[in-house]
Amino acid sequence: MENIVYSPFYDSYEIKKGDTLYQISKDYNVNTKLLAELNGLNIDDYIYPGQTILVPKKNVSYYITKEGDTLKGISEIFNVKENDIINSNDTIYLTPGQMIYYKRD
User: Fold this and answer.
1) Does pTM top 0.85 for this prediction?
2) What range defines the domain where residue 64 resides?
3) Helix, strand or coil for residue 31?
């Protein structure tokens, strides 16, 4: 399938009959809850054949911010320096629900 969205952080994936978020998360080695959040879904939401979702590229970690998060705390989650997080993201507001990315080389 041709990617419908270009990003250095994720690819698009077209749902096939029988797919589940759990199975897709295992195939792409990502947390099911984060995969759902990345796509504006709940873990138990129905996905259907032909639907397109985003899946993180290999070596990409992501985090969805929560109330009270700090850059220092997020850098500790990724186990990298704060500047690495800053350099991987165009803008960081640290407001709840913001997606923060980090791509490992």
Assistant:
1) no
2) 60-103
3) coil
